[in-house]
Amino acid sequence: MSLYLWQKSGVLLLSGLLFACVNSQAPAPVDSVGGDGSPSMGGRFAGAKRSMTGNSYTVQKGDTLYSIAFNAGTNVSALAGLNNISPPYNIFPGQTLRLHVFESQAPGYQRKAAGSAVVMSTPAVKPAGQTNQWVEKKTIAPPVAKEYPAVKEQQNNNTPATTGSPDWRWPTEGKVVEGFSTAEQGNKGIDIAGSKGQPVYAASDGKVVYAGSALRGYGKLIILKHDEDYLSAYAHNDQLRVQEGQTVKKGTVIADMGSTDAPDVRLHFEIRYKGKSVNPMSYLPTR
Fold this sequence. Notes:
The chain is an alpha+beta fold. Helix content is 19%, strand content 22%. The chain has five helices and 17 strands. It has helices at 2-23, 65-72, 76-82, 133-140, 149-157, and strands at residues 32-33, 39-40, 56-58, 96-98, 109-110, 119-120, 176-178, 190-193, 199-201, 206-212, 220-225, 230-237, 239-240, 247-248, 253-256, 266-273, 276-278. The strands form five sheets. Strands 7, 8, 10, 11, 12, 14, 16 and 17 form an eight-stranded antiparallel β-sheet that branches. The protein has a three-stranded antiparallel β-sheet with strand order 9-15-13, with no helix packed on it. It has a two-stranded antiparallel ribbon with strand order 1-2. The protein is globular.
C-alpha cells in the first residue's frame, strides 16, 4: 500500500514540473498598447514620440515635408535641398526621400577608377620642420560662429534669447507637468496640463505647415512656421481648429486640448530652431 502511495505521489510531482515548464514559455505581459495598436513594453507612455532613423523615408498619405523634417530633427530647407525639392515643397505618397548626406556627398570625397577602393582625401602631412599651409590657416582662422545661439545662451544663463526670435506667448493655461530634457530619449518640449476642450493658442504669428495625426506619439498635431528658422508644435489635441496653409496671428485659437496619444489631457509644446529642439522656457514670458 505504501509503495502505491509513493508511486502516485511521484506521478503528481512529475506532472507539476511539466506544467511549470510549459507555463514558462508563455509570452511576457504587455504593459500597454501604442496608438497604432502595437504593443509597448515601457517607455514614457504608450505611443511615445520617436524620431526617424535611417538614411531614407517613404512618404505616407498625410505627410508634408515639414512634418517629415520635424520628425527627422532636421531643417526643412536642408531636407528640400537634399532631395531637389523646390517651394512650395510638394511631395506625394510613395516618394522616397533621403534624410541624411551620404558618403559620396561629403566634402573631400573622391572615387578611384573602377576596381579600386573608395577613399576620402585628407590634407598631406608635411615633414617635421616644414609649414603645412592648411594647418596654418586652420590655426589662425577666427572662431566658428555659434550654430544655435539661442541654445548656447540658455545653457549659459538660462535667460530667453530674444534676438532674432519671434514674439512668443504661452500656448495655453495650466501647470507644466513635464519639462524639457536634453537626453537622447528625453522630452523635446514641455507638457502643460489642462482640461479637455481647453483652448490652445498660436504662440506667435505663423503659417500652418502641418495639421494631422500621422506622427506617432504626437496625436493630433499642429506645426506652425514662424520664419525661416523657427517652428512651433502643438500635440495631443482633441480637435484641430486650423488647416494647412492657413496664416494665423499670435493668440489665435488653433486647437482644443485633448489626450490623443497621451496618458491624460495635456498639451505637448515644442519650439524648433533650424530643425533642432530648444527649451521653450527660454523663450516664453515669465508668468
